[in-house]
Amino acid sequence: MKRFGHNLALKSLALTLLALTAGCSLFPDGLFPKFPPPYQAYPGEPRPTNEIAIVQTVGGTASRLAYPFFLSLDGERLQGLLDGTDEIHVLPGRHAFGLGFGPNGVVLGNRDQTPLLTLSFEAAAGRTYRIKGSAFISKGQSTPKRPSAHVIDKASGERVASEIVDPLESDGNAADAEETDSEETDSDETDAEETDSE
After folding, report:
1. First-to-final CA distance of the chain
2. The whole model's pTM is what?
3. What is the Cα–Cα distance from 172 to 27, expressed in whole angstroms?
4. Where are the domains of the chain?
5. Residues 6+ apart with CB under 8 A from 122
6. I need a labelling partner for 71 at 20 to 30 A (CA). Which of 40, 42, 131, 189 fits?
7. Distance CA 6, CA 71 (A)
8. What is the greatest pairwise CA distance in the chain?
9. 168 pLDDT above the threshold of 60
10. Residue 53: which region, alpha, beta or left (left: phi > 0; alpha: psi -120 to 50)?
11. Is the peptide bond before 68 cis (omega within 30 degrees of 0)?
């Protein structure tokens, strides 16, 4: 009886290792596919990564700051885009990304809202770009203020585009501005460290 139990345990372990190995070969970036999946912003079948550009938004958890999420591409609403989608695949060329801002990049309201800012840049095939930025959330208000964002080439760490809207809006105060600037500076330093480590 002991031997039967021992053999069963060995078989279970072997099956588990086999499943993990199969998962790694099916999904080289991890055991499971990304969810929500990347948004394909071109017609037809998915293309190899060396034929497209990948654009990602980067969130954060700082209090009183909102982070970017995708709303539109080249002036058109992104139909069928799932909440939480932080990656868009586009064909090479110049593209304009309309962004909203929410806590940790989560959609506030609905996706029919007007983008708070638009970032436009030339996306090259085989490159991955990261959109990093933030907007300030005042106490007692839900609408993010003073949004700013920039695009970084993931491989080189170079900034390829940036945009700031109303950096000192009239309903904000100097203390808020200094706090936001300080947190964004810390974020940029973290970005640089991430790029170096990659």
Report:
1. 52
2. 0.67
3. 46
4. 1-33, 34-197
5. 93, 94, 160
6. 189
7. 56
8. 79
9. no
10. beta
11. no
